[in-house]
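Forum > Structural Biology > Help requests

Title: Can anyone predict the 3D structure of Phosphoenolpyruvate-protein phosphotransferase?

Hi all, first post here. I have the sequence for Phosphoenolpyruvate-protein phosphotransferase but no way to get a structure on my laptop. I'd be grateful if someone could post the structure tokens.
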Amino acid sequence: EMELARANAHQKAATIDGMSVHVESNISGVDEARKAVHYGADGIGLYRTERHYLGRSTPPSRGQLIDEMRNVLFATRKLTVNIRLLDFGADKSLSYLSFLSEKNPALGRRGVRFLFDNPELLETQLSAILEVSKSFNVRILIPMVTVPGDVQRVKEVVHKIAREMGVDEVPKIGAMIEVPAAALSACEISKHVDFMCFGTNDLAQYSFAADRDSVAVEEYFDDSSDVIFRLLSIVHGDVRGMPLSLCGDLAARPEFVARLLQCGIKSFSVSPALVPIIKQVVRGSKWIS
Ligand code: PEP
Ligand code: MG
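Reply #1:
Sure, ran it for you. Structure tokens for Phosphoenolpyruvate-protein phosphotransferase below:
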């Protein structure tokens, strides 16, 4: 079984009843990018960019960001890459960025909210992404979208910078669906985005009100609960035609692949070494049960 998976790793995957499915990879640096290509990923479903901000005493300059992202993008070759905007604020913080001290950081200025509070960070990152979009196939993914206005605000900045840079073709823009309110208003959000990506790690954290990293409440944190599948189904029903992908840990669990296909997920993003395995599971699954 494993050998078969490895042998077919670079072939596209389709279900028994012929629906083609993308199995992509989550990455955060050059090593994983190389591995993703090695293991036959069909794309980069999630490029986490926090690493470019770690281990320094000031935020990276536009030029530094461009250089570092280019290194990663060269390694991904011709794959389409979803570059996620910085997702700092809750568990992760940085000495040189001023975080407001909050009682409940996971419910505070996290992800895109933190970027709205630090517009120069947002603008520098978007400007760097628009620059690399001239030579690589990239899309922009927004973390912690809660209301449609979050997407609209980011888009305004994207278009402003694109005008300043003389960039005509703006990358596609997607929303992470990882907050229950976003799932339940997917229809409104869908008017402003080209694709949606479920972050089931956070969707579970916020649905069950249980810190995803806390052992004390781990019994409550259940990312494969009916509750989660119900949210996925609601989104699927509400946004027919919208490309839906899933990049949380749930995507990498073979026993749930068939059920996720039924929720309209046509793209799974998992860690590089798991790509061949999930492809093989897809090949043995039916889309319509
Ligand atoms: C998620 O929340 O499921 C996700 C993929 O993003 P992260 O784990 O980086 O928060
Ligand atoms: Mg998340």
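Residues 46, 48, 87, 178, 199-202, 247-248 surround phosphoenolpyruvate (ligand 1) (CB under 6 Å). The longest strand covers residues 20-27.
Shout if anything looks off.
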